[in-house]
Amino acid sequence: MTTAVSGHELAAALRERFGEAVVDSADGAVWIAPAAIAGVCAFLREDPAHDYALLSSLTAVDYVEYFEVVYRLTSLSRNAMTVLKVRVPGRDEPSLPTVTPVWRGAELQEREVWDLMGVSFDGHPNLKRLLTWEGFEGHPLRRDYLEPPLPYTWPHGG
Predict the structure, then answer these.
(1) Residues 96 and 118: beta-carbon distance below 8 Å
(2) Which residues contact 114 (CB under 8 A, 6 or more apart)?
(3) How many CB atoms lie within 10 A of CB 85?
(4) What architecture does CATH give domain 3-122?
(5) Per residue in 36-45, pLDDT tens?
(6) Residue from 113, 125, 120 nearest 94 by CA
(7) Quick one: CA dihedral 49, 54, 57, 58, positive or negative?
(8) Residue 34 has what DSSP assignment?
(9) How many Å apart are CA 155 and CA 158, to the nearest integer?
(10) Would you say 58 and 109 are in contact if contact means Cβ atoms under 8 Å apart?
(11) 86, 99, 108, 114: which has the fewest C-beta neighbours closer than 10 Å?
(12) What whole-number distance in Å separates Cα of residue 90 and Cα of residue 85?
């Protein structure tokens, strides 16, 4: 059975190297500053103590006030998994650095997040629509996609 690495444990290890780029942690996840995500991911893949060679999934959640991009990482050699999250503010042009140089498998997953949620990945080699067609207006999994926008609120801040 795969062991889930505590977010607090991983955050402590990452703070030694990345300092304030580690924004927060919980039992199941570590929040990383948007600008630092590619560097943190590269470290977690290359460092033998972590060895997260597999990006199991990359997705996003729309919390209205911000988007949260979720990276689920797996270390096959250590039989361990962990979760990184990045809060991306703004609705007009939310963006993060790409992690495709770290995991080639991120290419399609980032395209899916771009297509359905509208979160852009700076430096992506081929950021274009994946599930909808070119010319499709909007991003269909955003909470404000419907016209007129529904009055969504998130009372407890995410």
Answers:
(1) no
(2) 120, 121, 124, 127, 129, 130, 139
(3) 23
(4) 2-Layer Sandwich (3.30)
(5) 999 999 999 9
(6) 120
(7) positive
(8) G
(9) 8
(10) yes
(11) 108
(12) 16
Q: Pull the structure tokens for residue 138.
A: 């909007």
What distance in Å separates the CA atoms of residue 72 and residue 95, rounded to the nearest whole number?
19
Measured CA to CA, the distance from residue 33 to residue 36 in angstroms comes to: 5
Nearest-angstrom CA–CA distance, 10 and 8: 6
Shortest CA distance to 59 belongs to which of 92, 86, 32, 26?
A: 86
Q: What is the pTM of this model?
A: 0.91
Average pLDDT over the chain, rounded to an integer: 93
pLDDT digits (tens, 9 = 90+) for 65-79: 999 999 999 999 999
Instruction: Note the pLDDT tens digit of each residue in 87-127.
Output: 999 999 999 999 999 999 999 999 999 999 999 999 999 99
Whole-number Å distance between alpha carbons of 109 and 96: 13
Q: Which two tokens stand for residue 4?
A: 């889930």
E-strand stretches of 63-148? 66-75, 80-89, 95-97, 120-122
**Sheet strands (E) in 26-149:** 30-32, 54-62, 66-75, 80-89, 95-97, 120-122
